[in-house]
Design brief:
The complex is a heterodimer of chains A (about 280) and B (about 230). By secondary structure, chain A is mainly β. Helix content of chain A is about 10%, strand content about 30%. Chain A has two domains: about 150 residues, no CATH class; about 110 residues, Cyclophilin. In chain A, the strands form four sheets. Chain A has a seven-stranded antiparallel beta sheet, with no helix packed on it. A seven-stranded mixed beta sheet of chain A has the order 14-15-18-17-20-13-21. In chain A, a hairpin with a 7-residue loop joins strand 14 and strand 15. Chain B has a seven-stranded mixed beta sheet. Classes of the chains: A mainly beta (about 280), B alpha+beta (about 230). At the A-B interface, strand 16 of A face helix 1, strand 4, strand 5 and strand 8 of B.
């Protein structure tokens, strides 16, 4: 048993897990951690099950006070984490004591950072997941991000005998693999070339639903009816700029699906800092 | 291109690596009832089943091999006819979008409301947002094309018209359809599994309620299945 108090929530700190599987038929998005590799690494460092709730911090991290002693781990973006004012390292297990203050600031690199706390955080589940999905009030505190004054409670859980799964190493890349999507052929030859030869950036108006890209303008094209979409699908909007469907994205869309990113490569995209150029690499 | 047969459907199978597969009807049949039947058969190799009018997407978590194809081809549509009917109370408010709908249909608001409550509508599909309902059966003159610029925020419970559909917003969201009223009962309760019991083909009958009745029904926190 233990708890900690949120003193400052940061820009957007939510509870996430591996998301809701099997409900896209009802237009319920999968949700879940945007960077599974970093989240799993943090959980592993504190000995948690990989599908337990974890704090996902976006752009600016939170400040919290521990009211119980425990172990924590921080992974993902460098949010200048400090324990009682002293800088602390990421990617390692850190012991915290009663009244310890964990603080952070704006990220230096990746947009998201993960804070795992040893134990199983107590929260609200909808469709087998606590992942926060605000529009439909699903998951933690009925879809609410963490707010000032929130208390996070956890129970000590017996993880003995649970085999430690292998975590695949995170690779940083500015080269994102894409595959031809169902409507790839609606691209002009020139646009097909632009898509993979010129750099793109993730725009500042991106969120957990979608990454709005800024880059070379592609030819505009349209489809008649709404079609199914999954996280990782790259849609071509009428403006000629692509949008990538992300974890909280819709399950149907009205734009051509020119390409897709495989789920295992999507976290590489989610690690790219906003505004940093990257390139697409077409895998046939 | 590979073709398979499920019930009365002939479908093309378009595989995208090991990730997902798209099924399209060769003869333009409506795929919604099939998508529902596939979803309900809980296939182990398909993690998600998303259906739209013209396409079904299966997100794969195993190879779509011959055994999987055989499983798909053994699915039968639910033949039970005589669909359940649900009453959907609507407070037809004075939303500014009424002007556009009156202009489009060339009919008065009162006439349109009368048409809507005397038309037998049908639940079609989920899509767009969790629990968002697509309902069909609108008279053609009410099938107002979507707004050129979507509204920034549409309130949960809003009933709106977009193309051939009447829609019910289950959550607050931006939206490109024309708002005509508000529904005081819930159709999406996340504490239930599955999210709603509505099935393709269920009959939806709109019932006009006053502003007073709307508030009284809202306070009772009813849902589609314990109302009416």
């Amino acid at each position: 048993m233990g708890n900690c108090l949120i003193l400052k929530p940061g820009a957007l700190t939510t509870l996430q897990d591996n998301g809701r599987i099997g409900y896209a038929h009802y237009a319920v998005p999968r949700s879940g951690v945007m960077n599974p590799y970093a989240a799993q690494k943090a959980q592993q460092l504190v000995g948690n099950n990989l599908d337990w709730p974890i704090l996902e911090c976006t752009l600016k991290g939170p400040t919290l006070k521990f009211e119980s002693a425990t172990s924590i781990a921080l992974t993902g973006g460098d949010m200048r984490w400090k324990l009682n004012g002293e800088s602390i390292e990421r990617d390692t297990t850190i012991k915290v004591q009663v009244n310890d203050l964990l603080s952070s600031g704006f990220t230096k690199d990746q947009p998201r950072s993960y804070l795992a706390i040893m134990g199983q955080i107590e929260t609200t589940y909808h469709y087998n997941s606590c992942s926060t999905y605000r529009p439909a009030k699903l998951g933690h505190n009925h879809g609410q991000p963490l707010a000032k004054g929130d208390l996070i409670n956890w129970k000590a859980a017996n993880t003995q005998g649970v085999p430690k799964p292998q975590v695949v190493a995170e690779t940083t890349t500015n080269n994102i693999s894409i595959h031809k999507g169902p409507e790839y052929n609606l691209l002009s030859e020139k646009s097909m070339h632009l898509l993979i030869s010129e750099p793109y950036k993730i725009g500042p108006d991106s969120n957990r639903m979608g990454a709005r890209l800024i880059g070379p303008e592609l030819n505009s094209a349209s489809i008649k009816n709404s079609v199914p979409v999954l996280p990782g699908f790259i849609q071509l909007t009428p403006s000629g700029q692509p949008i990538i469907i992300l974890q909280d994205g819709q399950t149907t869309g009205g734009y051509p699906r020119i390409a897709y990113i495989k789920p295992k490569d999507l976290s590489a995209l989610n690690r790219i800092p906003i505004g940093q150029p990257f390139r697409f690499h077409l895998v046939s | 291109m590979q073709y398979i047969h499920i019930d009365k459907y002939k479908l093309s199978v378009n595989k995208f690596g090991e990730e997902f597969v798209l099924l399209n009807s060769v003869d333009q049949k409506n795929l919604i009832p099939l998508s529902e039947a596939i979803y309900k058969s809980k296939l182990k190799f398909a993690e998600e089943v998303i259906g739209t009018e013209n396409e079904i997407c299966l997100k794969l978590n195993a190879t779509l091999d011959n055994i999987a194809i055989k499983k798909l081809e053994s699915i039968k549509l639910d033949q039970r006819k005589g669909s359940t009917k649900y009453i959907l109370p609507v407070y037809f408010n004075d939303h500014e979008d009424w002007e556009a709908i009156q202009n489009y249909s060339n009919k008065s608001k009162a006439t349109i409301i009368n048409e809507l409550i005397s038309t037998t509508l049908t639940f079609y599909m989920y899509g767009f947002l969790p629990g968002f309902l697509y309902i069909t059966g609108l008279p053609e003159h009410l099938q107002c094309p979507r707004k050129a610029t979507p509204s920034k925020s549409v309130e949960a419970g809003t009933i709106a018209i977009g193309g051939p559909y009447l829609g019910l917003y289950s959550c607050n969201s931006p939206g490109g359809w024309y708002s005509i009223g508000h529904c005081p009962i819930s159709v999406f309760d996340p504490s239930n599994k599955p999210p709603t019991q509505l099935q393709y083909g269920n009959i939806i009958q709109l019932k006009s309620v006053s502003q007073e009745e709307y508030h009284s029904l809202s306070a009772q926190k009813l849902d589609l299945f314990n109302y009416g």
